[in-house]
Amino acid sequence: MPARRILSLWFPRLGAERLLRRLGLPEEVPFAVVRDSGRCS
Fold it and tell me: Residue 16: left if φ>0, alpha if ψ -120 to 50, beta else—which one?
């Protein structure tokens, strides 16, 4: 099984989060920015 790393960060001033607040969505709405970094060794 390949090693898998997951990182969770919260940036209150991140542009995407500001947009979600401006749209008036509840905080319970899930939101994710995902990046595939390539091959796992």
Answer: alpha
pLDDT digits (tens, 9 = 90+) for 22-41: 888 887 777 777 777 766 55
Question: What kind and span of H or E run contains 26?
Answer: none
pTM of the predicted protein model: 0.38
Report the distance separating Cα 32 and Cα 41, nearest Å.
25
Distance CA 20, CA 17 (A): 5
φ/ψ (deg, to 5) at 19? -65, -45
In whole angstroms, how large is the CA radius of gyration of the chain? Answer: 14
